Q: What sequence folds into this?
């Protein structure tokens, strides 16, 4: 099966939005509820990101059908508090593969392509976040060479 990966286009934003929101619905905790205007908020946010020169985005297609996407950014990062020297890092905000096309290496290819682009921009490290208990995410990032560093922990109070 021929997988092609290309840079994102403005026309891809609606599809990305709908897939990303599907994912948000499954990943949100019980204390997190979508805002009433979540669709327009997402559309505006994606458009801003699409226009920023620091953003990167790729879309995977199989026989012209949308199969997945990856979105990230490259930035000179300042620590909080500002005690660590500024450094250029890449952040991958989201990678998503349409369910019917999973386990065929598309996620790995999208990640590889994004990292290649970040290497060209001289980033020193690439970071991402994923759900700790999602086996597919954990395996995908582990296979791509990523390891957990700081753990984002929580405790529900209700
Ligand atoms: C995570 C996700 C992007 C993986 O996409 P994918 O195209 O199925 O992944 P790949 O086929 O490239 O697999 C990459 C590696 O992870 C492993 N892997 C992927 N899914 C797995 C699963 N469900 N269970 C175990 N291992 C898995 C594969 O074995 C593969 O390693 P290998 O081929 O060297 O053995 C996809 O499951 C997805 O879109 N999930 C919903 C969104 C999400 O959770 N995104 C991550 C956080 S933003």
A:
């Amino acid at each position: 099966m021929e997988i092609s990966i290309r840079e994102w286009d403005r026309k891809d934003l609606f599809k990305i939005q709908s897939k990303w929101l599907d994912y948000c619905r499954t990943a949100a905790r019980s204390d997190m509820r979508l805002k009433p205007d979540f669709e327009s908020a997402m559309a505006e946010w994606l458009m801003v990101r699409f226009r920023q020169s620091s953003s990167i985005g790729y879309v995977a297609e199989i026989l012209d059908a949308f199969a997945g996407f990856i979105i990230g950014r490259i930035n000179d990062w300042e620590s909080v508090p500002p005690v660590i020297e500024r450094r250029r890092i890449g952040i991958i905000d989201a990678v998503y593969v349409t369910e019917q096309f999973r386990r065929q290496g598309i996620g790995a290819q999208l990640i590889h392509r994004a990292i290649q682009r970040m290497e060209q921009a001289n980033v020193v490290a690439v970071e991402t976040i994923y759900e700790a208990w999602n086996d597919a995410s954990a395996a995908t990032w582990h296979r791509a060479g990523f390891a957990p560093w700081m753990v984002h922990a929580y405790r529900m109070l209700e």
